[in-house]
Structures are given as C-alpha cells and as structure tokens.
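pls ignore typos typing on phone
flavin-adenine dinucleotide + seq
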Amino acid sequence: MAGSLRIAIVGAGMGGLATAAALRRVGIEVAVYEQATQFARIGAGIQIGCNAMKVLRELGLERRLRAQSFYPRSWNNRDWRTGEIKFDMIFGESAERKFGAPYLLAHRGDLHAALATAVPEECVKLGHKLVGLDEVGDSIRLRFANGATALADAVVGADGVHSLVREILFGTSPVNFTGRIAYRTTYPAALLGGERIDDCTKWWGEDRHIVIYYVKPDRSEVYFVTSQPEPEFRIESWSAKGDVRQLRAAFKGFDPRVENVLAACPDVHKWAIVDRDALPRWAERNVTLLGDACHPMMPYMAQGAAMAIEDAAVLSRCLEGVEPDGVANAFRRFEASRRDRTSRVQETSRTNTWLKEKTDADWVYAYDAWTVPLAG
Ligand code: FAD
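k done
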C-alpha cells in the first residue's frame, strides 16, 4: 500500500519542502530533517519561473504567491553603459497564457514561508543535522548531530550544494569556485527617493552584471544581485557581509539608474559563486539526491530553485503507488526523467548568455513537471 511508505527528506530548503508537500499529496508519509534551528529570512529575491509556478499551483500556493510577489511585465536586458535594450523577454499576461502560469518575482523568504505552509509543522524536524546513514535490513537509519536517530524506507537528500548525502553515496568532491562573487540585498524602495526602477532588468557589463527587480506587488522592496570577478574571495555564506563602497566602485560607470540603486543601498551581503559538474548518478538503492545536492548551477538563468521544485513533482509521480521494494526503481526512473533537463539548464546557466539576445525560452518555461512523460 502506498500509504505505508515512509520517506525521510534531508534539508528543508526549497527542494526539501516542495518534495515533502508533493509526496504527501500522493499519500506518502514524510519527515523533513533540517540542520537549522529556525528558518531565517534571508534578504534576497528569487525569480519564480512559469515552470516552477505550475508545480507550486498544484501544491496550493498560487494565490498566496501572487498576493505577495511582484508581477513583472518583462525581464529586460540592457547594455551596462548605454542602457540600450539587447532583448526584452516579455512576461506578464501574454507569457502567462503561453506558458500556463505567471512569472513572479518574490522575496526568497516569502517563497520559503509559502512552501513551509504546504507541509504540516509536525513533519519538519528543525535542529536535526544529518551526520550519517546506515542500512538496517530494508530500512535506513538516519543519525543526527543532536544524538537522535530515525528510520525510513527511503531517503531523499535535498541538502544543497554541500550535500552530506551525496558524500555518503559517492564520496567527497570539492565544489568549483568560479572565481566570481555576488553581492546581493533587498531594501525598501522608499530609499530610492521617489526614483522608480524598471520591473526587472539585467544590466550586462563586459565582465560583470547586475540584476535589479522589485520583490513586492506594491513595488515597496527592491532587490539586486551582481556577479563579478574576485578570485581570491572564497567565503560562501548567505550571511557574510560585503562593503557597499567596494560594490559601488565595482559598478562605477554603469548607467545612472544602476548607480542610483547602489547609492541608495544601505547594506549588502557578499558570497563566492560555486557550482559542480553534472553528477553521473543521483541515486543508490533507496537513497536519492534532489535539487542542488545533485545539480547545483550558476544563478544566471534564475532556475536553480525551479529545478528543485520541478524535481519534487516528478519524484512524487515516480513514487506514487510504489511499495517499499519498488523505491530503488522509482528513484532510477526519477533520475532518468530529470537528468537531461537539469544538465541542459546547468550547462546553459554556466555560459551566462540566457536572454542576453533574442532567446528561445519556451523549453524552460513551457515545461510542466506534472504532465511531462516519465522515463520508461
Ligand atoms: P538549499 O536551498 O541549499 O537547501 C538545502 C537545505 O538543506 C538547507 O536548508 C540546509 O540548511 C539543509 N542542510 C544541509 N546540510 C544538512 C544536513 N547535514 N542535515 C540537515 N539539513 C541540512 N533559483 C531560482 O529558481 N530563481 C532565482 O531567481 C534564483 N536566484 C539565485 C540567486 C543566487 C545568487 C543564487 C546563489 C542562487 C539562486 N537560485 C535561484 C538558486 C536557488 O537558490 C537554489 O537552486 C535552491 O535554493 C536549491 O534548493 P535546494 O533545496 O536544493 O537547496
């Protein structure tokens, strides 16, 4: 009976929570183990592609996300200095009709909080840092740093780019430091002193860029994220601070609209951008990886979380109605159904050319994880 499957999910990020919600939808019992003792509201924006929104709609989150997020007319791409438009990727209602769901710009904390409402609180165990996995008969025992243990029929490692589950399955391998860093922050639009910004613009420089957009429906909060070379910097933490003056100096000479956004910015975070090559395998018997744990990517298509959210829907379809002894096959099917797409997005992200000029974006945004054919 499908209802008897117990699945442990490691990590309550975007991928872990979406997976918990999607598996519960098909009657699977889940427990999510998260190392953090509480959810922090990180000052960052996140683009929710139409493809991710189709998944989130089925998880019951569309109305909430529409109410809390910004609905941009487009993702515009401009030359850093002249402001000349290179390519304006139109979203809004026409894209919503074409792709079947809206494109939204959200505060990352709002998306994460929305996903958390789709999973009952008692299913999420905070303060549980996984330290080991053991096979016990047909089950798996999870061991945590706090001394607790738990048993499950199967484990989903949604524990991000530094995944311990991946290390346990396939051994350690260092991440690629790309030699580039990102500054990012959100701040009240009121600090712009009445200056209005475009809905969403990527300003393309020669060796650097900045993406600026609103994250609230009433345009009350602004977000930006940059990418520029700084090979010596290797701190990869969401909470490490950057120096606003250095940031402004790095974007000196950019269009005055960019300089204004940076001049008004009170505070900024900074971290090193990392990625990994596509993994040859994601699963080993009844343990699989999902999201950044198996396909982390450069942020240049704004699709990393969307890929984790799509994974959640496809995994739930592969596991629906499956008995514990069918999980290993279901995990292989999941990987076979998802690998080509996530590898293509990983590789395309790495080139940092997405939407820089007229681009066929249909293959990304039209994808529907609920209906796409599964591998045989
Ligand atoms: P994570 O979000 O990293 O979650 C992993 C979770 O696992 C964390 O909560 C962590 O605490 C927990 N964990 C780790 N180890 C353990 C352990 N041992 N035990 C228990 N818990 C553990 N994507 C988009 O779709 N749109 C965007 O606009 C976008 N912008 C981005 C901008 C930047 C600058 C960056 C860096 C990324 C961006 N992304 C975007 C990508 C997106 O942030 C990631 O792809 C996404 O967060 C991956 O989700 P995940 O659940 O796989 O991993």
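The chain has a mean pLDDT of 95. The pocket of flavin-adenine dinucleotide is lined by residues 10-16, 33-36, 46-47, 129-130, 158-160, 164, 182, 184, 225, 291-293, 299, 302-306, 308 (CB under 6 Å). more later
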